[in-house]
Structures are given as structure tokens and as C-alpha cells.
User: What shape does this take?
Amino acid sequence: MASHRRPKQPSRARVTVLTTAAAAAVAISAQAANAAPSEKPSKDEVKAKVDKLYEAAEQATEKYNGAKEKQEKLQKEISTIQDNVARGQEELNGLRDSMGLAAAAQYRTGSIDSSLQLFLSSNPDDYLDKASTADQLSAQQVEALKKIQEKQRELAQERAEASDKLKDLASTRTELGKKKQDIQGKLAEAQKLLNSLTAAERAALAAADARASRSSASRVDLGNSTAANGRAAAAFQAAQTQLGKPYVYGATGTASYDCSGLTSWAYAQAGVSIPRTSQAQANFGTRIYSESQLRVGDLVIFYGDLHHVGLYAGNGQVIHAPRTGTVVRYEAISDMPFQFGVRI
Assistant: This one.
């Protein structure tokens, strides 16, 4: 027989909890629906972030330049050592051939001794270490054996040096690749930020940059400025011919430059070879800590880690390759954290 009992009703407490939860869910949904989207960064905020990324990219660029310079130096050193080893091996072969001819002559006359046979079949080192054996050879043969022994040791040392440098070169190439990725990552991030702006905002930033270049150029007055010396004057004049060339990391001219690429190229035109990186250039000449003592053509070093360099142009200005997205131009020293000047 079926039961006719009424189903148990939910308790008042349970109804209250469910009602409260439902109300909360409705409220959260309403808040989510009515929430304003996050505000887009302003043009000035984007520019500030992009400028920081460009500065970080330039720091990485100077490290990249240092690794590249080291790589090129190692490649030259390795090539020189390998040439020396090749020439040394030819010389060693010639010495051995001479000893072989002498041994053949002795063999034909039946006078070759067992000690010379021992040398010709293996290594003379053990043989020469035994003083008693030297008595069995002529003075000429002893001298020839000593030359061979010396040449063998020299070649072994040069081969070991080449091996060490090859390992260093491989490590430097790995470092170079990492620095390049670091630079490209920061530039890509900066470009992504710029792409978030409208076309009008990007045009406004470009126009402001162009105005900055024209404004700084108009403030340069070299009439009363004195060059540090003839080489500095020639370097500065060379740099002036590159005004308007674009900044490209790792570039040394003449289509484009980075900061130290411009200064090293300019001094090369004056017949002076200076280091490739801004940090190395900072230690190449006489430091000048007072801006008032700077002369045209002096190097001007910026930032605490010395990652930026330009050439003093007079009237509180430098000519430099500022950063990605700009060109070689004049700019006020006060626009950047001045550290010191360097007179070449």
C-alpha cells in the first residue's frame, strides 16, 4: 500500500542560506556586467615605458658590442696561432728531414749508432735527458736534436693556447647570442606598446621627436667653442657629416650607428683607434669631471653604468646616436645623467 505521508519541507535556515547565496550571485553578476573596462595607458605613459625599454636595450647593446669585439679579437688571435703552428710544423719537419738525411748517410757508411736510431723512431725527449747518450753524438747532431725538442715543446704550447681560445670563442658566441635575444626582446616589447597607440598618437610622438632634434640643433653655437685638440676637432667634424643617420644597435656606420659606434667611427676618421664600447671608451683617455672644462670633440659619458656616449659639441650640447627610433642629432647634456668627459 502506497504511503500518503507529505514530503519533508526544507528548514527555514536552509531557505535563508540559499536565498542569500542567490542574491550574492546576482549582485556579483551585476557588478561584473557594470564594471568599467581597465583604462588604456595614455600616450605619455606609453612613451615613458618605451623610453625605459629603449634604455635597457641600449645597455644590452653595449654588452653585445663588447662580446662581439671579444669574438673578433679571439678569431684574429686563433688565426695567428694556427698560422704559427703551421709554420712551426713545417720547420719541425725540416729539422727531422735533416736528421733523417744525416742518419741515412751514417747508415750507408755503416756508422749509425743505436741512440740516433732511437730518436728517429720515437721521441727525443727521453733520449736527451740522459747525459751519457750525448757523448755518442756529434756536437752538430746534439744541437739539431735540441732544436727539434724546443720546437716540439713550442708547438705543443701553441696548440694548447689555440684550444683554450677556441673554447673561449665558443663561450663568447653563446654570450653574444643571448645579448642579441635580450636586445630584440626589449625592442619587440617596446614596439608592442607603440602599436597599442592610435595612428594619431604615434604620429604625435614622432613629431615631438623631430622637433627635439630641430630644437637642439638650433641651440648649438660653435662660434666661441674650442676643440680639445686637432684629433678631437677632426672627429667632431666627421660626426657632423652623419647627422640624421638612424640609430641601429651594433651598427658602426656609415648607414647607421649606435652610440659608441658613432664615436669610434668619428675618431677613426681622425686617424685614432679607440675601443668599441662606451665603457671601454670611458677608460681610454683623461677624465674630465667638470662640464665647464669640456671642449669640442671630447667624449661625454652618461649614466651610472657608463652605457651611453656622445661627442661634446659646445654650448652644453653633444652630438650622439640616442636610441632606437631616433637619428644622430644634437642634444643637451642636461637631458641625460652626465658622468664625466674623456679627452682622447
Summary: The longest helix spans residues 43-109. Confidence is low (pLDDT under 50) at residues 12-30, 32-37. The chain is about 60% helix and 10% strand. The radius of gyration is 37 Å.
